[in-house]
Amino acid sequence: MDPDSERATTSPAGDGIELREAMTGRASPAKAAVGDKPVFAYIASLPQPQRGIAEAVDALAARTLPGLQRSVKWGMAYYGVGDGWCFSCGGFAGHVKLMFINGVTLDPVPPVTPTGMGKATRGVEIESLDALDERQVAEWMTQIASRPGVGGKKRS
Questions:
Q1: pLDDT tens-place string over residues 12-34
Q2: Model confidence band, residue 107 (pLDDT cutoffs 50, 70, 90)
Q3: What is the mean pLDDT of the chain?
Q4: What is the DSSP string of 36-88?
Q5: 3-class secondary structure, 18
Q6: What are the structural domains, with CATH classification, of the chain?
Q7: Rounded-to-integer distance, Cα 62 and Cα 60, Å
Q8: HSE-CB for 116 with a 13 A CA cutoff
Q9: What are phi and psi of 143, to 5 degrees?
Q10: Is the pLDDT of residue 152 over 90?
């Protein structure tokens, strides 16, 4: 188990991948890297059902946001448009955490306030593909992409 994690669960598929129960540092051992390829590799490394959920979130982001940029940061997939990162998606034991940076500005505000991700971050914990509300998530993606992201210049 990674020393950053207080609790981790091995994938039920028996593939040896450990997913954290909660955010306690890095979400996974995935290395930081910019681009589509590292994000696709990160998603492919997840056990099911987290892999399927993360693939669906990634595909929804690609359909919803022209000019989508991807990166792996802090062991999770990060997404942005323009000059900053808008939201992240990471696999955890029992769910996928989809977190919107500055999510407190969204309407409606997503229900989950994550630990260790900033006071303004909000999101959802998705336990199955059936629980993914694509209409609502696409609306949040569109809203958050119109706001200044993190790590870039302010958009006008």
A1: 444 445 654 544 444 556 778 99
A2: very high
A3: 83
A4: HHHHHHHHHHSPTTHHHHHHHHHHHHHHH-TT-EEEEETTEEEEEETTEEEEE
A5: strand
A6: 22-145 (3.90.1150)
A7: 5
A8: 10
A9: -60, -50
A10: no
